Structures are given as structure tokens and as C-alpha cells.
Amino acid sequence: MFLVGLTGGIASGKSYVASMLNEKNCKIIDMDKIAREVVEPGRPAWKRILKNFGKDILMLNGEINRTLLGEIIFADENKRRILNRCTHPAIRKAVFFRLLKLFFQGHRFVILETPLLFESGIIASFMHKIIVVYCDPDT
User: Fold this and answer.
1) Pairwise CA distance, residues 50 & 54, whole Å
2) pLDDT tens, 9-62?
3) Tally of domains in the chain
4) Does residue 94 contact residue 37 with C-beta atoms inside 8 Å?
5) Contact 115, 32 (CB under 8 A)
6) Could you tell me the residue range of the domain that residue 15 belongs to?
7) Residue 139 forms part of a structural domain
8) Which of the residues 20, 57, 86, 131 has the least number of beta carbons within 10 Å of its own beta carbon?
9) CB-based burial of residue 114 (10 Å sphere; 0-12 exposed, 13-18 middle, 19+ buried)?
10) What is the pLDDT of residue 127?
11) Rounded-to-10 torsion of CA 103, 109, 110, 116
12) Which pTM value belongs to this model?
């Protein structure tokens, strides 16, 4: 399977480029979407996060308060590493199964839209090509 990484900074236009590629019938795996799915209430990563950060990070509906958790992990590097250990295995597993499904459906070309392609570690080494989306700050 030919994997293409699609990455870029915040508000650089990654989603816009992904939508253009999707219109050309390219299969897109949105890593941000997967990262949100694996922490839905009751999922294993959600349970690991609660075990490590406590129930104070929950909203009334049981979802994780992403703003509050963000404040915690950006203030403490160790807590960021803990969060990554809670979520990254579930994200990798979900991506693997989506890739496998697409492969068995006959798709030989898949784009992984991910904002932290290089920062996330080993995933970049699996990409055949990488597209970096950039725009100037004024745009």
C-alpha cells in the first residue's frame, strides 16, 4: 500500500487539501478524528486517561474536557508523556485497522492527514511521500 502523509501547522489548510484530494477519490485517514474517537466515554484510552488524570477532567456528559486537559499537559511535560502513553497505542491500532480494511477493499493509495507527522515518532518512516501544507501567517 502506498502511504502519503499530509501534514502542516495549525490552520495551514491541511483539511482543505484533504478535501480536494477526497474529491479526486483519494482515501483519507484523519488522525485528529481518530484521536477524538479513541477517547470517547467508555473506550479503553478514555479509561486510562481517567486513571491517570482523575475525573475532574470530565465534562457533565462524560466527555473529556479537552481544554482543561490541554492546560494540564502543556504545563507539564511529564503529564504530556503520560497522556501520549494513554492514547497513542489506541490511535496506532485504529489506524492499522483502517489501513487494513482499505487494503482489503482494494485501495492501494491512502493519505494520512496528521498535524504531528514528524513529532509523533515512527509513523513518518512508513510514508512513501509526505505533503507539507503551508501558508503565510496573514493568510
Assistant:
1) 5
2) 888 889 899 999 999 999 999 999 999 999 999 999 999 999 999 999 999 999
3) 1
4) yes
5) yes
6) 2-133
7) no
8) 20
9) buried
10) 87
11) 130
12) 0.84
